[in-house]
């Protein structure tokens, strides 16, 4: 399973890039606004930090403008994945950009049939929003399971399932068990994945017992 970071905070990426565990980055207009920085500067800086796809989302909703924006974003760096919303216009743009060899991340996916449409439109990534489904009382992980089941039936569908809107470590566990190709994880959640109290207690005991030997390695 690949791990992407879901952030537009370059400092958060710098803090985690040396782990060697980060395979890409996803941003969205909300994260960019939160960064307080120029969109294009953030995307270029992210592409220079990570040797993997960096998702940059269009702002327009109409086909013509979305296509122009998508091409501008793709021109920023070869590893930009253009993010488009799951709408008729968005999927038209997805088809056109992917036919031109540009990576496309279709976002704001909330149903398996939307994911089927995105795959037919040649999406590189589909982003089902697990957490936001949970937020309204549905089991968001069912989305991942259903999409995985559908995609497995058709070898010609090459779209990667990018589990998004991850709220906590259990979402990462469940997405991995459900067969998501990627999870895009908020940095705070990624830090949480490392920790278990039994590991901490075991380390404390090993340190104490090793110190009692008086030896060095
Ligand atoms: O960036 C896409 C997605 O992961 C954002 O989800 O629900 O945290 O805004 P959310």
Q: Assign the structural class, choosing from mainly alpha, mainly beta, alpha/beta, alpha+beta, or little secondary structure.
A: alpha/beta
Counting DSSP E segments of at least 2 residues, the number of strands comes to 8
The first-to-last residue Cα distance is 36 Å
Query: How much of the polypeptide forms β-strand, as a percent range?
Result: 15-25%
Largest sheet: 8 strands, parallel, barrel
Q: What's the SSE pattern?
A: EHEHHEHEHEHEHHEHEHH
Rg over alpha carbons = 19 Å
Strand arrangement within the widest β-sheet reads: 1-2-3-4-5-6-7-8
Low-confidence stretches: none
User: How many domains in all?
Assistant: 1
Estimate the helix proportion, in percent: 40-55%
Q: At the first level of CATH, what is the class?
A: Alpha Beta
CATH fold descriptor: TIM Barrel
Mean pLDDT: 98
List all distinct small molecules, including ions and cofactors, that are bound in this structure. Answer: SN-glycerol-3-phosphate
Give me the number of helical elements: 11
Gross morphology? globular
Outline of the structure:
This protein has 217 residues and is of the alpha/beta class.
Structural description of this entry:
By secondary structure, the chain is an alpha/beta fold. The protein has eleven helices and eight strands. The chain has an eight-stranded parallel barrel with strand order 1-2-3-4-5-6-7-8, surrounded by seven helices. The radius of gyration is 19 Å and the shape is globular. The structure holds SN-glycerol-3-phosphate. The site of SN-glycerol-3-phosphate has 10 residues, from helix 7. SN-glycerol-3-phosphate binds at residues 6, 26, 28, 127, 129, 131-132, 164-165, 184.
């Amino acid at each position: 399973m690949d791990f992407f970071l879901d952030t537009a905070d370059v400092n958060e990426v710098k803090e985690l890039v040396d782990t060697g565990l980060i395979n890409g980055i996803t941003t969205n207009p909300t994260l960019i606004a939160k960064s307080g920085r120029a969109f294009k500067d953030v995307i270029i800086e992210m592409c220079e930090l990570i040797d993997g796809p960096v998702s940059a989302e269009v702002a327009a909703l109409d086909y013509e403008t979305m296509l122009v924006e998508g091409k501008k974003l793709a021109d920023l760096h070869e590893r930009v994945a253009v993010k488009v919303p799951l709408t008729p216009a968005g999927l038209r743009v997805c088809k056109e950009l992917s036919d031109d060899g540009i990576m496309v991340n279709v976002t704001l996916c909330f149903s398996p049939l939307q994911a089927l449409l995105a795959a037919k439109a040649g999406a590189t990534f589909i982003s089902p929003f697990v957490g936001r489904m949970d937020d309204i009382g549905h089991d968001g992980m069912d989305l991942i399971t259903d999409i995985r089941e559908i995609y497995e039936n058709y070898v010609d569908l090459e779209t990667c399932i990018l589990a998004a809107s991850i709220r906590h470590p259990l979402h990462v566990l469940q997405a991995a068990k459900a067969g998501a190709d990627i999870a895009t994880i908020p940095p705070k959640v990624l830090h949480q994945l490392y920790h278990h109290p039994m590991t901490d207690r075991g380390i404390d005991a090993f340190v104490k017992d090793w110190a009692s030997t008086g030896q060095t390695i």
